[in-house]
Amino acid sequence: MTEVKMKLNGETRSASVPPETTLLKMLRESFNLTGAKLGCDVGDCGACTVLVDGMSVNACLMLANQVDGREVLTIEGLATVEYLHPVQEAFETFASLQCGFCGPGVIMSAKALLDENPDPTIPEIRDALSGNLCRCTGYTKMIEAIQDAARILRAKEHA
Amino acid sequence: MNDKLRVTEKELTQEALRDPTEALRVPVVTPPVPYPIETLVPEVRQQTPAVGQRATRPDGRLHGLGQTRYIDDLTFPGMLHAKIKRAGIASALIKRIDTSEAEAMPGVMAVLTGREIPVNSFGPSLQDQPVLCDERVFHAGDGVAAVAAVTEQIALEALEKIKVEYEPLPAVLDPLEAMKDDAPKVHPPASNIYSHKIIKKGDLEKGFAESDHIFEARFSTQMVEHVPLEPHASIGMWDSNGRLTVYSSLGRITLGRTDIARTLRLPINRVHVVATIVGGNFGGKNEITQEPVVALLAKKTGRPVKAVYSRGEEFTSSTTRHPIIMDYKTGVSRDGRILARQVKLYLDGGAYCSWSETTLGKACILSPGPYNIENVEAEAFVIYTNKTVTGAMRGFGAPQVCFAYESHMDDIAKALGIDPLEIRLRNAFSEGSISPTGQVLHSVVVRESLERAAERYGWQESQS
Q1: Quick one: pLDDT at residue B6?
Q2: Is B71 buried (19+), middle (13-18) or exposed (0-12) by CB count in 10 A?
Q3: Of the given ranges (A8-12, A77-81, B179-183, B189-193), which has the lowest mean pLDDT?
Q4: How far, in Å, CA of B348 to CA of B390, rounded?
Q5: What Rg, from alpha-carbon coordinates, does chain A have?
Q6: Spans of chain A below 50 pLDDT
Q7: Which of B84, B102, B192, B83 is nearest to B138 (CA)?
Q8: Residue A15 distance to chain B (closest CA, Å)
Q9: Beta strand pairing status for A71-73 and A2-8?
């Protein structure tokens, strides 16, 4: 067993897991954070995307003990009771999710993009979502929603 | 009002005149007044206010919050994880299955083989698919044994300890080969052609005789997997009264319930199927897959059992879109009017029927295309091969034939030197056209749609 201690969604948490456990498995099974999904298990679909130290990663390809001492943000850590993250709000308004299985991953990729680039162009958004697959094919609405969220975030910054 | 009452009295008297056995066929409680069913007929071409407006989904917020619970997100106390061993051989007899080594592994709670399944066959139309193969393997993705263990990892390791001895049989992988009389039978003694449909309209020979040109072409499409982002998942558990609850990513739960009850030889009222949000279906989750397996493993262990397909299993063991070989023969007049069309479709049915009959019907009906053709003959066959099961997928055979007849139209237009848009406008269905099956069509806007699309696309400019 290996001990993993990290800052998870802003709180210091620890878990004791077998060494072969992936970050995704630890999040889902040790912490019951099931927002990140297992889609392909080989890093193709992006349904398991979470942020580690602000970088988007495929949680299915990362071992749990690689996040020891680091900061992990999952979809569950994005919103609070009173406040949806602008990306989540925009995804709801623009009906960007159909079955929703890819949604948490896409939203985390979008969050990583907007943290780095507050005014992304459409090609930049496409590039940021290149690691996330959606089979219901809502890419157009996702891109619209991310642009809208970017606008709102920029307005908040200036206010 | 008075009129209505009078009618009621009259109706009631008539009810009393029925034979008691006939009375069984009417509702137990007769409605107090005759209740006309008002059918809502939308006005043709009326623009409804919904079009062009943004519609939000009621479940959209929880999806975005990551709070929607798909099957794999559910856990129950004491839950075990199941994995299925796949055959990896297209056609073979199972001589022996040795599960003793797997059963002895620490952490393995139960092992299941096909022989333990009460009724080892299911399917939405033909019940030709085993839950787990017992005597014979029909395609490489078939399950031959299943394991329930305390962790997924242990279940996977246990699969490797299960020894299966096969006697390989000749496999048939090409539908045209499989149609031949001397081809190996996938489900002996049954013929490899398991469903057939023919549609005839007019006089084909006369149509070809009157044609100035005859064009022939063969088109074929490939197998397509739905690849829903959420793999097939199910959880089975029993209550103390011997009732089964199955949580499943199934799209058709009532059909699934019937199939689960049948395979487990349970009265249907003992089976409770719970469906939650499905993470993408596209037709691939229209029938049961591993539900009876998790149910039986849960029964053996007395604990909830969950099973989730790996991405690999999604490709090898779930249903796919039918590859179709499509032969078109079309007779046209000098000015590009279609006078006769003969279509032959050979659907690769894979190892089991699944939704092949539906796909066969729809592909056959739609194969002549949306064109006014007086003389039509469309014939379709669906053929067993030792390959992954083909079943329902968006369109049920329509996309395949659409690719073929539209490609064929382009070829004809090119050969006759007619504009591809023009040849379609000359032949397209219009209001009141009669389809090859004799259906009178309403709200037909093929021409308008084509013209509008051509105008917006700038078709004329692009041609000059």
Answers
A1: 47
A2: buried
A3: A77-81
A4: 7
A5: 15
A6: none
A7: B192
A8: 17
A9: parallel
Q: Which CATH number belongs to the domain containing residue A100 in this structure?
A: 1.10.150.120
Total CB pairs under 8 A between chain A and B? 105
DSSP 8-state symbol, B432: T
Q: How many angstroms separate the CA atoms of B425 and B428, rounded?
A: 5
A134 part of contact set with chain B, CB < 8 Å: yes
Chain B nearest-CA residue for A43: B311
Beta-sheet pairing, B80-86 with B305-308: parallel
Hey, are the CB atoms on A100 and B227 less than 8 Å from each other?
no
Q: Per-residue pLDDT averaged across B109-129, rounded? A: 96
Contact between B311 and A36 using a beta-carbon 8 Å cutoff? no
C-alpha pair distances (Å), B251 with each of B54, B82, B273, B277:
26, 21, 11, 9
- CA B80 – CA B260 distance, rounded (Å): 20
Q: Does any CB of chain A come closer than 8 Å to the CB of residue B65?
A: yes
Cβ-based contacts of B282 with chain A (< 8 Å): 135
**Which of residues A60, A77, A94 is at a domain's end?**
A77
The pLDDT tens digits of the residues spanning B199-233 come to: 999 999 999 999 999 999 999 999 999 999 999 99
The reply to whether A117 touches chain B by the CB within 8 Å rule is: no
Residues 6+ apart with CB under 8 A from A50: A23, A24, A27, A36, A56, A57, A59, A72, A73, A74, A75, A108
Determine whether the interchain pair A36/B66 forms a contact, defined as Cβ–Cβ distance below 8 Å. yes
- Token pair 């009389």 is found at B181
In one-letter notation, the amino acid at residue A25 is K
Could you read off the pLDDT of B94-107 as tens digits, one per residue? 999 999 999 999 99
Read off the pLDDT of residues B416-462 as tens digits, 9 standing for 90 and up. Answer: 999 999 999 999 999 999 999 999 999 999 999 999 999 999 998 88
ipTM reported for the complex, 2 dp: 0.94
Let me know whether A94 and A154 are in one domain: yes
Domain that holds residue A56: 2-77
Chain A residues within 8 A of B68 when measuring between CB atoms: 100
What CATH architecture does domain B185-225+319-463 belong to?
2-Layer Sandwich (3.30)
| Residue B8 scores a pLDDT above 80 | no
Nearest to A95 among B54, B280, B281 (CB): B54
Using DSSP, state whether A106 is helix, strand or coil: helix
Cβ-defined contact of B227 to A36 (cutoff 8 Å): no
Chain A residues touching residue B231 (CB < 8 angstroms): 38-39
Residue pLDDT, tens place only, B236-254: 999 999 999 999 999 999 9
Domain boundary among A51, A77, A103: A77
